[in-house]
Write a structure and sequence with these properties.
Chains A, B: InterPro entries: ArsR-like_HTH, HTH_ArsR_DNA-bd_dom, WH-like_DNA-bd_sf, WH_DNA-bd_sf. Two copies of one chain form a homodimer. Chain A has a domain of about 70 residues: Arc Repressor Mutant, subunit A (Orthogonal Bundle). Chain A has about 120 residues and is mainly α. In chain A, strand 2 and strand 3 form a beta hairpin. Chain A has a three-stranded antiparallel beta sheet. At the A-B interface, helix 1, helix 2 and helix 5 of A face helix 1, helix 2 and helix 5 of B.
């Protein structure tokens, strides 16, 4: 998943839950075992595992198992793809706002020179 | 909504749908009336209005009505708050990766000077 293009619908859906965002925040500080990750949450382990599975399916986190211990870590590239999508929409909007400001300035300058000619 | 802190669960949920992301992309190019927005979508107007309502409720877009015409526009500040949350998690992760690289470099330098002393 880490090298594929993330499915943005799945990534945004995964982040639309406070428990899953909290897991992402914790994993930002480094890899964690599932039991250490689950400890602070007042939640049955199967429910917690479902949240991990949503995050892993869309590539926001990855996990590996050594013996009986499963360790999770963040896949920053996936978050970065979702970030880039949002940044692109804002950039479009800002470019348009800049063009409008430039156009307003042009009208203003034309008004000034027209005023000078008429004096 | 534009001046409040966005509810990230609602914002990410709103963006977890390809139709709603397409609406956001179109509005990045400038405000649009509901009928112009709806035209390219092969969807009944009530379903389309539901998508707009999800986007408006969480502050990703705003709308105003003049006479019978409703116009929508993007609220870039809301997207920016969601972007900042993701950027923060990545920054945490990257800072940790940098600290690990620095630590590995320190061990390496210690190995080198130990090697020199032993020669």
């Amino acid at each position: 998943m880490a090298n594929q293009r993330a499915d943005l619908s799945e990534v945004f859906y995964a982040l639309a839950d406070p428990t899953r965002r909290k897991i992402v925040s914790v994993l930002g500080r480094g890899p964690e075992t599932v039991s250490a990750l689950a400890a602070p949450f007042d939640m049955a382990l199967p429910s917690f595992m479902k949240h991990l599975s949503v995050l892993e399916r869309c590539g926001v986190i990855s996990s590996r198992k050594e013996g009986r211990v499963r360790t999770c870590e963040l896949v920053p590239k996936t978050l970065s793809q979702a970030e880039q999508w949002m940044a692109k929409q804002r950039a479009l909007w800002e470019a348009r706002t800049d063009r409008m400001a430039a156009f307003a300035e042009q009208l203003h300058q034309e008004d000034i020179s027209r005023g000078k000619r008429q004096r």
